[in-house]
């Protein structure tokens, strides 16, 4: 599955003024470099599939350099999943996609047949669209296994209307808005039908459309466009109410309310050109928080200390609990080390220290890992495994504490380890 891409090309002018977020299954990694990853049983992984437009893709102006990776709401949602267990993300956000295009795309996914880019939507600006079109059989498999499916869609349907609002009389604006709303409701309802045909039980979260321009930029027209956005909220609520069922929830993420009155700090409309309305990093975080609160009841962030200094050790989250012990993690040669006792307590493992061999034995879930002070190898169930940096003894007060390499130990015990460079946090899940 596609988890990241190496090159992100900007969308065409006239980006999203409003956008819809539809979510139902969660999985996958974001702009995060995995310190290590050991896949566990299939049923233990929470899978997120993100479908939709450039909001799903995490687009921001200027993201055209090779190697730049997006960090949007979907990637943040993945990090939130790591707080709750093993999680994966498949992100298929397509730049420039409209609701009609998403309907064609999900139809092909439902059928499990590869399609051409033109069959999805003519003239899409996304450089990856041919690859995405060819992947529909694989995406169908991922969609069927998803626990949460997210979609942002709709902004490209109404962008021309909102960009030209000044040239339209109120009656003409209202008439065209009604047409776009009817098309939006029809297409999104059909999109959800395609998704339900593939996965009848995944959670679906449909977000409403926010109005991105601040009052200072719109003047007297601000209230008019806010009222139009409110109609999209009503449409999203109606779609969800029609399709929501016990055991197969369809929820609405009311993103618009989080942007109202603070659009200038949450979108790129100020200083980024009059035609670009994509979220800022703060905007993407606000969107992710709405999704996360609906899915898990909260949006979590690591301790502030982990974010204030590049020299400080990262935050460590084990089975959803952030470690906070007197024996702080130690950063050495680019790797984090934890005191033996803290590791045992955090993961619920058993262990012992052998003074004669200067080694620690850790036992968990049928695996035995032996780590020797100063050794460039560890033993996993008797087999030697090379590691980059050996364990060491650290003086803490009057005691010598045994510090073990976190990534090597977690991998040896069969844990899933993911690292978020943005949060400077390692997530460890059995």
UniProtKB/TrEMBL annotation:
Coiled-coil region list: none
A Pfam family: Lipase_GDSL
This protein's UniProt keywords: Signal
Keyword Cell division: no
Gene3D superfamilies listed in its UniProt record: Copper amine oxidase-like, N-terminal domain (3.30.457.10), SGNH hydrolase (3.40.50.1110)
Residue ranges annotated for the Copper amine oxidase-like N-terminal domain, each copy included: 317-428
Lineage: superkingdom: Bacteria
Cleaved signal peptide residues: 1-27
Protein name: Copper amine oxidase
Natural source organism: Paenibacillus tritici
